[in-house]
């Protein structure tokens, strides 16, 4: 998307890191957990939620439901435990795409120990590539590993068709599990405005997974707006 | 922190194969050329790699829309009849981990007894100093089996004015070339001066040039007529306009 009259240079994925201008001394940012990571004996499903919406939604949950157990501030990564069961939730937002595989390395002990991994992320509708002329306000697409999940979560969504792809932390978790011959599912929510909080369908999905008990659509709107407008 | 590289091979036999590696570079020309080869030669996926050195990317099979098979950032395809294998790279390498990963790539394939490496890449069109010369350049290691063949194509040897080999905009190509030399593996770099935009014609040109050194298609017919675009290219320039605007 561009504004009227704006000249947008065509660019490919090479812009992610310019190899001709790299100064090796500036490449030493270390991503680490703030506290020592105690790997639980049993992890049922590990949910990896990507994006500001999910991170904010999980952050305001009651402490007796979701307990924050570790964080990595450099990558805006937070690890929560769902207290009523052996399931865990990781939220990650506003991270540098070039660090996604390092974030996965940090989470690898959890990803490899979990019985199942489900990643959820939102993407703007404009990024969805399809020849279909049909328009919908939102929809969900799914990607699964070759090894199917043994845990039933009732994920009856259409598969993400080529040429659509996913990249980043969620994609990394699914790719790692695929290479470990373990199950994982990536869900992607295509919506018109990813920062809008009037998306009841996402709340319903999070409630179904027992990640949230309630999630007010207006809970943090004030943080995103200018009070004086 | 532990750095991960996981290799998953479904078919180990790569004895006397030529390894083709596309470097993520200007316009993704080399990746598109490899896509064309995989699709046109009906190459079979024989492995995949997960590595910290790459930005993770996932999707379904880009060559078969009906497939339920997951496709990831780095995959290996091979053609038994042509004796070539391709390490298709679908996302950029991360600079600080690239050297270690590329060394591992060469060691792994050397153990599988590949005979040589061809690196495909591209460079910024504005870096081409002699405008009437061919858009293609090559760099060939000493004793390379393609050294004589490539001189007969409409290509020029890359002029490197001393010092380290540099291909501006060419991604990891020069680093991989250096590693191949260190590991005594014959290596050829083939690159095209290109600009970002519609790079499909560049990919076709690159495959055509590649056929001058590697016999990949029937010589009875025109190479271009034998190339088959992968199904994932259908929406390369976006979806149709929304109907709501009319």
From TrEMBL, chain A:
Entry GO MF terms: proteasome binding
Keywords tagged on the record: Chaperone
Cellular component GO terms held in the UniProt record: endoplasmic reticulum
Biological process (GO), any one: proteasome core complex assembly
UniProt xrefs under InterPro entries: Proteasome_assmbl_chp_1
Family the UniProt entry places it in: Belongs to the PSMG1 family.
Family matches, as PANTHER family: PROTEASOME ASSEMBLY CHAPERONE 1
Name under which the protein is recorded: Proteasome assembly chaperone 1
Organism: Euphydryas editha (Edith's checkerspot)
From TrEMBL, chain B:
Keyword terms, alphabetized: Chaperone
Cellular component terms (Gene Ontology): cytosol; nucleus
InterPro entries listed in its UniProt record: Proteasome_assmbl_chaperone_2 (IPR019151), Proteasome_assmbl_chp_2_euk (IPR016562), PSMG2_sf (IPR038389)
UniProt key word Chaperone: yes
Example GO BP: proteasome assembly
Key word Chaperone present: yes
Cited function: Chaperone protein which promotes assembly of the 20S proteasome as part of a heterodimer with PSMG1.
Family per record: Belongs to the PSMG2 family.
PANTHER family membership: PROTEASOME ASSEMBLY CHAPERONE 2 (PTHR12970)
Subunit structure: Forms a heterodimer with PSMG1.
The protein's name: Proteasome assembly chaperone 2
Organism, as annotated: Euphydryas editha
């Amino acid at each position: 998307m561009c504004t009227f009259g704006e000249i947008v240079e065509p660019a490919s994925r090479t812009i992610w890191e310019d190899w001709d201008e790299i100064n090796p001394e500036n490449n030493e940012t270390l991503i680490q957990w703030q506290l020592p990571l105690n790997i639980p004996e049993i992890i049922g499903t590990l949910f990896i939620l990507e994006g500001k919406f999910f991170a904010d939604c999980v952050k305001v949950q009651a402490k007796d439901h979701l307990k924050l157990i570790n964080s990595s501030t450099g990558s805006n990564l937070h690890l929560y435990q769902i207290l009523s069961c052996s399931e865990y939730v990781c939220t990650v937002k506003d991270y540098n795409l070039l660090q996604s595989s390092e974030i996965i390395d940090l989470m690898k002990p959890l990803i490899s120990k979990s019985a199942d991994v489900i990643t959820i992320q939102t993407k703007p509708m404009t990024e969805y590539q399809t020849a279909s002329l049909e328009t919908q306000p939102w929809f969900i697409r799914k990607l699964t590993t070759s090894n199917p999940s043994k845990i039933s979560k009732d994920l009856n969504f259409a598969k993400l068709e080529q040429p659509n792809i996913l990249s980043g932390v969620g994609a990394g978790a699914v790719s790692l599990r695929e290479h470990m011959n373990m199950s994982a599912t990536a869900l992607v929510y295509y919506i018109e405005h990813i920062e809008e909080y009037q998306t009841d369908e996402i709340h319903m999905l999070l409630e179904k997974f027992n990640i949230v008990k309630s999630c007010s659509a207006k809970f943090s709107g004030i943080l995103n707006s200018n009070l004086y407008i | 922190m532990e750095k991960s590289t996981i290799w998953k091979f479904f078919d180990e036999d790569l004895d006397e194969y030529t390894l083709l590696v596309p470097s993520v570079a200007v316009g993704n020309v080399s990746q598109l050329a490899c896509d064309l080869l995989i699709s046109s030669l009906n190459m079979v996926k024989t492995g995949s790699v997960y590595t910290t050195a790459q930005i993770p990317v996932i999707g379904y099979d880009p060559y078969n829309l009906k497939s339920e098979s997951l496709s990831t950032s780095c995959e290996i395809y091979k053609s038994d009849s042509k004796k070539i294998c391709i390490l298709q790279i679908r996302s950029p390498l991360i600079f600080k981990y690239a050297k270690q990963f590329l060394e591992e790539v060469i060691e792994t394939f050397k153990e599988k007894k590949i005979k040589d490496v061809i690196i495909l890449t591209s460079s910024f069109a504005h870096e081409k100093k002699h405008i009437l010369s061919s858009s293609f350049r090559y760099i060939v290691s000493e004793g390379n089996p393609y050294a004589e063949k490539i001189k007969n194509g409409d290509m020029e040897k890359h002029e490197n004015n001393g010092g380290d080999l540099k291909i501006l905009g060419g991604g990891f190509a020069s680093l991989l070339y250096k590693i191949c030399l260190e590991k005594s593996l014959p290596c050829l770099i083939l690159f095209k001066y290109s600009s970002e935009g519609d790079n499909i014609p560049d990919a076709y040109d690159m495959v055509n040039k590649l056929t001058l050194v590697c016999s990949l298609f029937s010589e009875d017919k025109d190479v271009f007529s034998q190339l088959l675009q992968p199904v994932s290219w259908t929406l390369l320039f976006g979806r149709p306009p929304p109907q709501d605007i009319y």
